[in-house]
Amino acid sequence: MKRRPTIIDVARAAGVSKTTVSRVVGSEADKVREETRQRVLDAIEELGYTHNAVASSLRTDRTNIIMLAIPDITNPFWPAVARGVQDVMDQEGYAVVFANSDWDSEREEMFLEMARRNRFDAILINPVQVKNDALKALHLPTVLIGSHEDYPDFDSVGSDSYGATRLALTHLYDLGHRQIGLIRGQRQSRLGYSRLRGYQDFLEEKGIPLDQRLIATVPFDEEGGRLAFQQLVAVDQPPTAVFASNDILAIGALQGAHEAGLTVPDDLSIIGMDDIYAASTTMPPLTTVAKPQYEIGQRAALFLVDRLVEKRPFSPSRRHLFKCTLHERGSTSCPRFLD
């Protein structure tokens, strides 16, 4: 079997040192004269040399690989976020490895240990259960995706879900709705409280009594949205409108309304959050509060690049929340008694 060419073989063929070859195939090609660099590249092509990135990482303590850890790869919210991350990291010369935890804390822990053990340079994560101190113990630059006030040592980039909730409820209130239900998503390890807090604060400000029967807590999937709808319409005084914590839950609620023989929005209004692609293709098209998904991924990646360049992974932490916008479509209207 023919021996694989080494960096020494390339150096001999090009008449240069190993250091020069390393600079050409590494991140310091700009330090090599153009004529010399071309000789090295010609030798590489002639010999069929392949750069050993693993060996290089042991010398430089860099792999040029980062991990993007998300909880649910089936959620259409994440592709645009991932695109924003990848577009930034591509320009910086980093590869992105995707890790899907499936809302499973053990899988999340396994992926984080994999990143540490395989010497990844940094981590972007929407955490499921891992705590601030455990992330800090990895000693890797890390940026959180989402609004995470309980991680004081890390940068975070997300959207203003509290403000988005109030925006959705204001839309329903202005249409004349006063009996408004909330479909609240339940994750495996924790509940998201920003939407609930926004819902409670809004009702209090408007003088509307809080009815716990109008709050349905279900898994973050379409089946959860369908079951939540069944629960809400079964109460003595069912809601005339429903706010779902994300579009997937809202689409499930639309399915529940169809199965119950109800017409949206004539019989009941439904509004979601995120503005995933499917929201504009439902029947009727879903009114929703849009989050800037691509920009969230892009800004998170830029924060991470800053940490990699500064080599100061923890202090001071930064937090950026994007504002959300209302996209009014066909699933909301005035309640029937106001027609």
Chain-wise SSE layout:
Blueprint: H1 7-14, H2 18-25, H3 34-47, H4 53-60, E1 65-70, H5 78-91, E2 95-100, H6 105-117, E3 122-125, H7 132-136, E4 142-145, E5 155-159, H8 161-175, E6 180-186, H9 193-206, E7 215-219, H10 222-233, E8 241-244, H11 247-259, E9 269-274, E10 287-290, H12 293-310, E11 319-322, E12 325-327
Parallel strand pairs: 1-2, 1-3, 3-4, 4-5, 5-11, 6-7, 6-8, 8-9, 9-10
Antiparallel strand pairs: 10-12
Helix pairs in contact: 1-2, 1-3, 5-12, 8-9, 10-11
Short summary of the structure?
With 339 residues, the chain is of the alpha/beta class. Helix content is 42%, strand content 17%. It has three domains: 7-51, Orthogonal Bundle (434 Repressor (Amino-terminal Domain)), CATH 1.10.260; 65-159 and 293-322, 3-Layer(aba) Sandwich (Rossmann fold); 161-292 and 326-338, Response regulator (Rossmann fold), CATH 3.40.50.2300.
